[in-house]
Design brief:
This protein is of the alpha/beta class. The chain is built from ten helices and nine strands.
Amino acid sequence: MEKDQNIALLIDCDNASHQAIDGVLNELAKYGVTNIRRAYGNWKTPNLKGWEEQLHPFAIQPIQQFAYTQGKNATDAAMIIDAMDLLYTQQLGAFALMTSDSDFTPLVMRILANGLKVYGFGEKKTPLPFVNACSQFIYTENLIPPAEADDTPADTPHDLKKSRNELRGDAGLVKLLRNAAEQTAEEDGWSHLARVGQYISNNTSFSPINYGYKKLSDLIRVSELFQIDMRKNNSVMYIKDRRK
């Protein structure tokens, strides 16, 4: 993973929450430098007031799109055209699309075909075709600070971490983790967690954040699906299926 790669963030303001932008940029900082930041929408409408207040603090360029025809989304078209322009004119390592609209699924697949990763950020209502198409997809509800998310009392966590039983009860997750560990196992049967994570990211849009954990290692520990062996002065985690 290239930590110094350039990333272009394109935001569909009609289908994304402004409350999550800080969390989105913090997450993208793990993968590279988000030096292109564009937000699309009709800035003459009052529903984008929240986004308007985020533009200067986060150095985001607003792109004005008028609703030329009722029922047609000019924002989608503008984002797609800009993405293709950026794909061929800029030295980018990845794109980030902040939207809950599945209409961008073909765009994701086109970018992936050029060898770039696509990080998706959207609400939990986002259709699965778009979620699954992305290199990694994170639900923005998990990136919004509790105080901003709703009126939940301060002593009540907004996003509870999935418990051991909830993790183990997710058949899809269990299969994914076990298969990744099996496919990356070394001769002694142990799997380097970094390779497990890379295998998962190459095959799915999985992110531990969607389960309430910042790191895959934290999720692995809580699930208790694997034996854990810390090596190299306790800095490298290896795992092995407990069933073996």
